[in-house]
Amino acid sequence: MKIVILAGGFGTRISEESQFKPKPMIEIDDMPILWHIMKYYSSYGFNEFVICLGYKGYVIKNFFANYFLHTADCTLDLESNTIEYPTSSCEPWKITLIDTGLNTMTGGRVKRIKDYIKNETFMITYGDGVADVNLTELLKFHKKEGKILTLTAIQKQERFGVLGIDDNSIVTSFREKTIEDAAWINGGYMVAEPELFDYIENDQTILEKAPMIKLSEENQLVAFKHYGFWQCMDTLRDKQLLESLLEKNKAPWKVW
Fold first, then answer.
1. Residue 197 DSSP class
2. Residues facing residue 129 across a β-bridge
3. Is the pTM for the entire model greater than 0.85?
4. Given 79, 84, 94, 116, which is the most exposed site by the fewest CB atoms within 10 A?
5. The domain 2-149+186-247: what is its CATH number?
6. Would you give the end-to-end CA distance of the chain in angstroms?
7. pLDDT tens-digit map of 112-136
8. pLDDT of residue 173
9. Interacting residues of 128 by C-beta distance below 8 A, sequence separation 6+
Protein backbone atom coordinates (compact mmCIF):
# COMPACT_ATOMS: atom_id res chain seq x y z
CA MET A 1 0.00 0.00 0.00
CA LYS A 2 1.31 3.44 -0.94
CA ILE A 3 1.61 6.21 1.63
CA VAL A 4 1.05 9.68 0.17
CA ILE A 5 2.72 12.47 2.15
CA LEU A 6 1.81 16.11 1.54
CA ALA A 7 5.12 17.96 1.72
CA GLY A 8 4.72 20.98 -0.54
CA GLY A 9 3.43 23.81 1.66
CA PHE A 10 5.27 27.02 2.49
CA GLY A 11 5.31 26.53 6.29
CA THR A 12 4.92 30.26 6.92
CA ARG A 13 4.18 29.90 10.64
CA ILE A 14 7.62 28.46 11.24
CA SER A 15 9.42 30.83 8.88
CA GLU A 16 12.44 30.93 11.19
CA GLU A 17 13.43 27.65 9.54
CA SER A 18 11.15 27.24 6.53
CA GLN A 19 12.80 30.17 4.77
CA PHE A 20 15.73 27.81 4.21
CA LYS A 21 14.00 24.45 3.70
CA PRO A 22 10.50 22.96 3.32
CA LYS A 23 8.81 22.37 6.66
CA PRO A 24 8.93 18.55 6.40
CA MET A 25 12.72 18.83 6.25
CA ILE A 26 13.02 20.74 9.52
CA GLU A 27 14.99 18.52 11.84
CA ILE A 28 14.09 17.09 15.21
CA ASP A 29 16.73 14.91 16.81
CA ASP A 30 19.02 15.61 13.82
CA MET A 31 16.63 14.07 11.27
CA PRO A 32 13.79 15.69 9.27
CA ILE A 33 10.30 15.31 10.69
CA LEU A 34 9.40 13.77 7.31
CA TRP A 35 11.86 10.96 8.07
CA HIS A 36 10.25 10.41 11.50
CA ILE A 37 6.83 10.07 9.85
CA MET A 38 8.17 7.59 7.31
CA LYS A 39 9.93 5.57 10.00
CA TYR A 40 6.64 5.30 11.89
CA TYR A 41 4.75 4.01 8.84
CA SER A 42 7.62 1.66 8.12
CA SER A 43 7.37 0.19 11.62
CA TYR A 44 3.93 -1.11 10.54
CA GLY A 45 5.31 -2.57 7.33
CA PHE A 46 4.38 0.29 5.00
CA ASN A 47 7.47 1.05 2.93
CA GLU A 48 6.23 2.55 -0.34
CA PHE A 49 5.91 6.33 -0.30
CA VAL A 50 4.69 8.97 -2.74
CA ILE A 51 5.84 12.40 -1.57
CA CYS A 52 4.05 15.45 -2.98
CA LEU A 53 6.63 18.20 -3.42
CA GLY A 54 6.19 21.94 -3.84
CA TYR A 55 8.08 24.65 -2.00
CA LYS A 56 11.82 23.92 -2.11
CA GLY A 57 11.10 20.36 -3.18
CA TYR A 58 14.65 19.99 -4.44
CA VAL A 59 15.82 19.87 -0.81
CA ILE A 60 13.79 16.70 -0.26
CA LYS A 61 15.03 15.22 -3.54
CA ASN A 62 18.64 15.92 -2.59
CA PHE A 63 18.20 14.38 0.85
CA PHE A 64 16.92 11.05 -0.45
CA ALA A 65 19.16 11.00 -3.53
CA ASN A 66 22.13 11.23 -1.15
CA TYR A 67 20.56 9.24 1.68
CA PHE A 68 23.55 6.94 2.21
CA LEU A 69 25.83 9.95 2.35
CA HIS A 70 23.62 11.56 4.98
CA THR A 71 23.10 8.51 7.19
CA ALA A 72 25.88 5.94 6.74
CA ASP A 73 29.61 5.70 7.25
CA CYS A 74 31.49 6.15 4.02
CA THR A 75 35.00 5.99 2.55
CA LEU A 76 35.84 8.51 -0.18
CA ASP A 77 38.66 7.74 -2.60
CA LEU A 78 39.41 11.11 -4.15
CA GLU A 79 41.88 9.77 -6.66
CA SER A 80 39.39 7.37 -8.24
CA ASN A 81 36.39 9.59 -7.39
CA THR A 82 34.51 6.74 -5.72
CA ILE A 83 32.57 6.31 -2.50
CA GLU A 84 32.28 3.06 -0.56
CA TYR A 85 29.85 2.38 2.25
CA PRO A 86 31.28 -0.08 4.80
CA THR A 87 27.83 -0.61 6.29
CA SER A 88 25.01 -0.89 3.77
CA SER A 89 22.02 -1.36 6.06
CA CYS A 90 19.18 0.92 5.02
CA GLU A 91 15.43 1.31 5.29
CA PRO A 92 13.53 -0.82 2.72
CA TRP A 93 11.79 2.20 1.27
CA LYS A 94 10.64 2.85 -2.26
CA ILE A 95 10.14 6.61 -2.60
CA THR A 96 8.46 8.40 -5.50
CA LEU A 97 9.07 12.16 -5.41
CA ILE A 98 6.53 14.15 -7.43
CA ASP A 99 6.64 17.88 -8.12
CA THR A 100 2.99 18.83 -7.54
CA GLY A 101 3.45 22.57 -8.05
CA LEU A 102 4.51 25.51 -5.95
CA ASN A 103 1.05 27.00 -5.31
CA THR A 104 -1.05 23.85 -5.53
CA MET A 105 -3.50 23.23 -2.69
CA THR A 106 -3.71 19.97 -0.72
CA GLY A 107 -6.45 18.44 -2.87
CA GLY A 108 -4.67 19.44 -6.04
CA ARG A 109 -1.50 17.74 -4.84
CA VAL A 110 -3.40 14.51 -4.21
CA LYS A 111 -5.04 14.73 -7.65
CA ARG A 112 -1.64 15.07 -9.33
CA ILE A 113 -0.41 11.71 -8.03
CA LYS A 114 -3.45 9.79 -9.31
CA ASP A 115 -1.47 7.91 -11.97
CA TYR A 116 0.92 6.57 -9.33
CA ILE A 117 -1.93 5.19 -7.18
CA LYS A 118 -3.97 3.61 -9.98
CA ASN A 119 -6.94 1.64 -8.60
CA GLU A 120 -5.62 0.89 -5.12
CA THR A 121 -6.49 1.85 -1.57
CA PHE A 122 -3.89 4.29 -0.28
CA MET A 123 -3.01 6.34 2.79
CA ILE A 124 -2.52 10.11 3.04
CA THR A 125 -0.93 12.20 5.74
CA TYR A 126 0.72 15.56 6.28
CA GLY A 127 4.48 16.01 6.30
CA ASP A 128 4.56 17.91 9.58
CA GLY A 129 2.75 15.81 12.17
CA VAL A 130 3.74 12.81 14.28
CA ALA A 131 1.48 10.50 16.26
CA ASP A 132 1.19 7.03 17.74
CA VAL A 133 -1.89 6.07 15.72
CA ASN A 134 -2.40 2.31 15.50
CA LEU A 135 -2.16 2.01 11.72
CA THR A 136 -3.24 -1.63 11.71
CA GLU A 137 -6.47 -0.75 13.51
CA LEU A 138 -6.94 2.34 11.31
CA LEU A 139 -6.78 0.24 8.15
CA LYS A 140 -9.04 -2.42 9.65
CA PHE A 141 -11.57 0.29 10.59
CA HIS A 142 -11.47 1.75 7.07
CA LYS A 143 -12.14 -1.64 5.47
CA LYS A 144 -14.96 -2.38 7.90
CA GLU A 145 -16.71 0.95 7.28
CA GLY A 146 -16.36 0.65 3.51
CA LYS A 147 -16.31 4.40 2.83
CA ILE A 148 -14.25 6.43 0.37
CA LEU A 149 -12.25 8.31 3.01
CA THR A 150 -11.33 7.68 6.62
CA LEU A 151 -9.55 10.37 8.59
CA THR A 152 -7.96 10.12 11.99
CA ALA A 153 -9.78 12.44 14.39
CA ILE A 154 -7.90 13.86 17.35
CA GLN A 155 -8.79 16.23 20.16
CA LYS A 156 -6.13 18.91 20.38
CA GLN A 157 -6.02 20.41 23.87
CA GLU A 158 -5.74 24.19 23.80
CA ARG A 159 -3.31 26.15 25.93
CA PHE A 160 -5.76 28.71 27.25
CA GLY A 161 -7.96 28.57 30.32
CA VAL A 162 -11.76 28.52 30.33
CA LEU A 163 -13.67 31.41 31.88
CA GLY A 164 -17.16 31.32 33.34
CA ILE A 165 -18.71 34.80 32.85
CA ASP A 166 -22.16 35.88 34.10
CA ASP A 167 -24.53 38.46 32.58
CA ASN A 168 -22.79 41.26 34.50
CA SER A 169 -19.41 40.39 32.99
CA ILE A 170 -18.22 38.97 36.30
CA VAL A 171 -15.82 36.04 35.99
CA THR A 172 -17.50 33.37 38.10
CA SER A 173 -15.01 30.59 37.49
CA PHE A 174 -11.68 29.83 35.93
CA ARG A 175 -10.15 26.48 35.11
CA GLU A 176 -7.55 25.02 32.80
CA LYS A 177 -8.90 23.82 29.47
CA THR A 178 -9.27 20.03 29.35
CA ILE A 179 -9.41 17.61 26.46
CA GLU A 180 -13.19 17.44 26.87
CA ASP A 181 -13.38 21.10 25.80
CA ALA A 182 -11.64 20.44 22.53
CA ALA A 183 -13.46 19.69 19.28
CA TRP A 184 -12.48 16.76 17.12
CA ILE A 185 -10.19 17.82 14.27
CA ASN A 186 -8.58 16.09 11.30
CA GLY A 187 -5.16 14.86 12.37
CA GLY A 188 -4.21 13.38 9.00
CA TYR A 189 -3.30 9.68 8.92
CA MET A 190 -6.05 9.09 6.38
CA VAL A 191 -7.02 6.06 4.31
CA ALA A 192 -8.62 6.61 0.92
CA GLU A 193 -10.13 4.74 -1.97
CA PRO A 194 -9.26 5.85 -5.54
CA GLU A 195 -12.77 7.30 -5.91
CA LEU A 196 -11.45 10.23 -3.86
CA PHE A 197 -9.84 11.64 -7.02
CA ASP A 198 -13.31 12.21 -8.50
CA TYR A 199 -14.08 14.69 -5.72
CA ILE A 200 -11.05 16.88 -6.45
CA GLU A 201 -11.67 19.46 -9.17
CA ASN A 202 -8.31 21.12 -9.85
CA ASP A 203 -5.00 22.38 -8.41
CA GLN A 204 -6.74 24.97 -6.25
CA THR A 205 -9.00 22.45 -4.52
CA ILE A 206 -8.35 22.26 -0.79
CA LEU A 207 -8.82 18.65 0.28
CA GLU A 208 -10.20 19.64 3.68
CA LYS A 209 -12.96 21.82 2.20
CA ALA A 210 -15.17 20.98 -0.81
CA PRO A 211 -14.14 17.31 -1.22
CA MET A 212 -14.57 16.45 2.45
CA ILE A 213 -17.81 18.43 2.70
CA LYS A 214 -19.26 16.55 -0.26
CA LEU A 215 -18.01 13.20 1.04
CA SER A 216 -19.64 13.97 4.39
CA GLU A 217 -22.94 14.90 2.72
CA GLU A 218 -22.86 11.60 0.83
CA ASN A 219 -22.05 9.61 3.97
CA GLN A 220 -18.66 8.64 2.52
CA LEU A 221 -16.41 10.18 5.21
CA VAL A 222 -15.76 8.47 8.53
CA ALA A 223 -13.55 9.26 11.50
CA PHE A 224 -11.21 6.91 13.30
CA LYS A 225 -10.99 8.40 16.80
CA HIS A 226 -7.46 8.52 18.17
CA TYR A 227 -7.08 9.15 21.91
CA GLY A 228 -3.30 8.87 22.02
CA PHE A 229 -0.46 11.17 21.11
CA TRP A 230 -0.60 13.58 18.18
CA GLN A 231 1.42 16.71 17.55
CA CYS A 232 1.92 18.84 14.48
CA MET A 233 4.98 21.04 14.02
CA ASP A 234 3.32 24.30 13.08
CA THR A 235 5.52 26.69 15.04
CA LEU A 236 8.95 26.91 16.62
CA ARG A 237 7.32 26.17 19.97
CA ASP A 238 5.96 22.90 18.55
CA LYS A 239 9.41 21.98 17.26
CA GLN A 240 10.92 22.58 20.69
CA LEU A 241 8.24 20.40 22.30
CA LEU A 242 8.99 17.50 19.94
CA GLU A 243 12.73 17.86 20.51
CA SER A 244 12.17 17.86 24.25
CA LEU A 245 10.23 14.59 24.08
CA LEU A 246 12.99 13.01 22.02
CA GLU A 247 15.71 14.19 24.40
CA LYS A 248 13.82 12.65 27.34
CA ASN A 249 13.17 9.39 25.44
CA LYS A 250 9.45 10.08 25.80
CA ALA A 251 8.54 10.40 22.12
CA PRO A 252 5.48 8.13 21.63
CA TRP A 253 5.94 7.93 17.86
CA LYS A 254 9.53 6.70 18.08
CA VAL A 255 8.86 2.96 18.08
CA TRP A 256 11.87 1.86 16.02
1. G
2. 232
3. yes
4. 79
5. 3.90.550.10
6. 20
7. 999 999 899 999 999 999 999 999 9
8. 66
9. 9, 11, 23, 24, 33, 232, 233, 234
